[in-house]
Amino acid sequence: MSIWHNEEFTSETLNTMGQQTMTAQLGIQFTETGEDYLKATMPVDERTIQPMGLLHGGASVSLAESMGSVAGTLCVDWQKQGVVGVEVNANHLRSVISGQTVTGTVKPLHIGRQTQVWEIKIHDDSDRLCCVSRITLSVINLSQAQQAHARQKQEEAGR
User: Does residue 47 carry a pLDDT above 60?
Assistant: First the structure.
């Protein structure tokens, strides 16, 4: 059984909605949608490395927060509510060298009316676990201006 409030979305829709955001700037691409998870990739390149040529921890956290926020948004009525991050943490378990692509998988730990908690696991090209992150989101009611912006983004994405 699907956890998503509105199931009429695809990876392509999510990528279109992320255009002109930090998600797009980092090369994050949603690649798979399941009944209770999303997958996305991020290149380890000049946008996401630190001076030693390794994946920057902040880039991993950006991938995790982006994935958790998108997943959280898909669990509310986009026309009336949104989600905002209130806490994010990450354990960096393994280095990833430039030239690889990391893949994140986000799954819910808790989906409530006021808060959501999501776990994001990030793996390297060899499917080794590199980072485990958790994000807590607050569910908020959107103002009229925010509702109009949400509708515009949905229309641009072809929904």
Answer: yes
Cα-trace Rg, the chain:
15
Task: Tell me the CATH number at 82.
Answer: 3.10.129.10
Domain that holds residue 128: 11-156
Residue 108 lies in a domain: yes
The answer, as to whether pTM is greater than 0.85, is: yes
Is residue 1 included in any domain, yes or no? no
Nearest to residue 91, comparing CAs of 40, 134, 56, 141?
134
Instruction: Please give the positions annotated as active site.
Output: 65
